[in-house]
Design brief:
- By secondary structure, the chain is α+β, with helices and mostly antiparallel strands.
- It has one domain.
- It has 4 helices and 5 strands, in the order ββααβββαα.
- α1 packs across α2.
- The longest helix is centred in the C-terminal third of the chain and has 16 residues.
Length: about 120
């Protein structure tokens, strides 16, 4: 799960600070195994190429983070959700890594593509 650290800081008192946006990160190995079983080798190869070229707006590949994500992970923007900030005080989450400025720029670009891309079919 990916979130912003100031949003989970209990000492950060500000309006509407009780909810935290989170984005799930799917283990790359698990996804490849499931995708290949379900749709086959050729579709997997095609999808991997499209992921590498950032042509799939709903998903962003994250580089390896051993030992937790030895072959990387996929941020799945269609599943961004929220949780109460108190969860971080009781569930003992652990910090794994930070995103670089370059990485944050790429995440921002992907989010803009997901949220602001033109509609495939214009509504009346």
């Amino acid at each position: 799960m990916l979130t912003h650290e100031c949003d989970v800081d209990a000492g950060n008192e500000r309006l509407f600070n009780y909810s935290v946006l989170v984005c799930p990160i799917i283990d790359f190995d698990s996804w490849v195994e499931e995708y290949q079983e379900e749709l086959g080798e050729e579709r997997l190869k095609d999808t991997l190429g499209r992921l590498a070229n950032r042509e799939i707006f709903r998903v962003m590949y994250l580089p390896p983070l051993p030992p937790v994500l030895p072959h990387g992970g996929l941020m799945y923007f269609n599943e961004i959700t929220h949780t109460h900030s108190d969860w971080f005080q009781t569930a003992t989450p652990r910090f794994l890594a930070s995103v670089t400025s370059y990485g944050l720029t790429k995440i921002d670009q992907m989010l803009q593509n997901v949220l602001f891309r033109p509609k495939a079919v214009q509504l009346a």
